[in-house]
Amino acid sequence: MKKIILLMLGVLAVSLFLVSCLPPTGEASSLPVRPTESAVLKDDFFVLKMDDFKNEIVQYKGADRTTMTSPKIRFKLISSGETLESALTGGSATIRLSGKAYKIKLISPDRIDSPISIDYDGDGTLDLVHTKSSFHLKKLIDLNGVYYVQPVTCTEVKTLLEGESVPVESLGILNLNLIYVDAEKIRVSIDGASSGDIALGRGEYVGAPGASGAFVHNLGILYQAYAGGIHQATLCLR
Questions:
Q1: Which of 8, 15, 95, 185 is 20 to 30 A from 167, comparing alpha carbons?
Q2: Where are the beta strands (DSSP E) in the chain?
Q3: CA distance readout (Å), 55 to 121, 124, 148, 163, 200
Q4: What is the pLDDT of residues 51-95, one digit of tens each?
Q5: CA–CA separation, 74 vs 114, rounded Å?
Q6: HSE-CB of 200 using CA atoms within 13 angstroms
Q7: CA–CA separation, 50 vs 58, rounded Å?
Q8: Rounded-to-integer distance, Cα 50 and Cα 100, Å
């Protein structure tokens, strides 16, 4: 009987340990990502350069074969959730955002959901991933409406709690402060210069003219909407 009781207590202890390892409801966590060497595949994420201060994370959602009637290619804007659909002509298409045109080319136009090449900065030339795109992702997860994106390449990656301040020595920043967090956006300051609202998946340059500053990209938000919940964000700085 004593052995049975000890065995039951051991099983109970293991069960409690496993339950304690599970993330709380509504909490987002990181997911391993796969850097892509050249072509962008279906469900990959990439960054389009809007101007010197803002970028847009876009997800490739698939494409028709060019032999189909009225073939199209589809993308999703992460910052807004909007779906973009563009007509394919001879295996090529164009994404139009904020007055700029970004060329897209199917690598295998006779295949459904062909890999694609992209003009990341809207200069009219198809680019290689690692020369123009800040980071290139395979995975993005959505847990209870909260997105979390894990970076592949950034000068610095910082995860801060709301109200927390840290220095970023590699960029000459004395005080990076996460001012505000909610489930969709953040605000930060760098050495006293404050950003506007930075939506998930978007970024902007933060800094006073002639002073320290950095491009800050909102990579991920952890927002637990209950008393005592964690409010934090993961930032890509470069």
A1: 185
A2: 45-49, 55-63, 72-77, 83-87, 92-97, 100-106, 116-118, 141-143, 146-148, 156-161, 165-168, 173-181, 185-190, 193-194, 198-199, 202-207, 213-223, 231-237
A3: 9, 17, 17, 25, 11
A4: 666 677 788 899 999 999 999 999 988 777 789 999 999 999 999
A5: 12
A6: 22
A7: 12
A8: 7
Is 73:83 a contact under the CB 8 Å cutoff?
A: no
Half-sphere exposure of 198 (CA within 13 A, CB side): 32
Specify the pLDDT at position 27. Answer: 33
Q: Are 46 and 138 in contact (CB under 8 A)?
A: no
**What letter represents residue 224's amino acid?**
Q
Tokens 């910052």 correspond to: 79
Tell which residue, 79, 50, 55, 199, has the closest CA to residue 135.
Answer: 55
Looking at residue 8, its pLDDT comes to: 46
Write out the two tokens for 69.
Answer: 């009637």
pLDDT in tens, 176-209: 999 999 988 999 999 999 999 998 777 889 998 7
Asked if the model's pLDDT at residue 223 lies above 80, the reply is yes
- What is the identity of the amino acid at 41? L
Neighbouring residues of 78: CB distance < 8 A, sequence distance ≥ 6: 45, 56, 57, 58, 59, 140, 147, 149, 200, 201
Q: pTM for this structure? A: 0.52
pLDDT at 98: 81
For residue 195, the 8-state DSSP code is P
Q: Both tokens of residue 98?
A: 């904020």
